[in-house]
Amino acid sequence: MLRERPRRGPLPPVQEHIDKLEKVVNDGNYYGAQQMYKSISARYASADRYLEALDLLHSGACIQLKHGQVTCGAELAVLFVETLVKGKIPYNDENLDRVRKIYNSFPQISVPQHLGDDDDVQQLSEALGAAKTRVEGCTSFLKAALKWSAELGIHKNGSPELHDMLSEYIYSESPEDMSRVSLHFVRGNNPKKFASTIVNFMGKCYPGEDDLAIARGVLMYLSLGNLRDANYLMHEIKSQVEKSEQLEFPQSDLIQFIIYLLQTLERDALPLFRMLRQNYKSSIDREPAFNEYLDEIAEKFYAVRRRNPLQGVFGDFFKMMGGDVAM
Length: 327
Prior knowledge:
By secondary structure, the protein is mostly helical. 69% of the residues lie in helices and 0% in strands.
């Protein structure tokens, strides 16, 4: 005779589970708590009690991250965003604050810079591995949040605030990845912070990378049709470098091209734009993506149609939002 499966009783107020699981985590049973966070939140979501499921997942993500459990915390953070989508919870300031609280819970730990003996090398290797785990976890979380904000908010490319968070976190953990940092900064709303980040990068990069970082940022803004922030970025970088005793603003042909380009885009001057591209071709070719950005700029400012509209910066962004490694 088959034994009848016992029925689950009604779900209690979620705060009971929050308090119980917080104690489990504080006692060091991270894995056990993780499984309970996932299974119990799924029960609330199945009962269409999405707000309570969100409360539980939010609490779990924050406390796991507080205890340095990045993999567990990131998994719950992604589940939190997926529940926002399932429950059709709109993007607004209150929900953005909840996402920001999880983001602020991700640890940011500097990688050792000075190496000595073999123990130091081992320490560096471990630190780099941990940094990679943190970046991948936070990136997965914020990428999911960007999709949610695009789907249930007003920004078709995702929330500018979330782009700023992601760019700042990537730079804090992987400062060499300026292409990815820039990709998100130009979709944010903090060009002053972007300028400060580039200036900081100029103080630690290899020779010849400083002008590339400046040009990349300006061209990315322009490829989005954003001449205002492109000009602001250039001006702000110059201003911050002038105040620095250690840095000099680069005087390369590439920077000269950027200066002329910004002036050209202020007027209806397609022939001059084309002449600049031809005259500074060798400088532009230092980074293959620059020609893609310039094709986007020609379309935005002079209605020059691209052969393939999904090429270039927008194609990269679509891939990024779909989970491509460019994120």
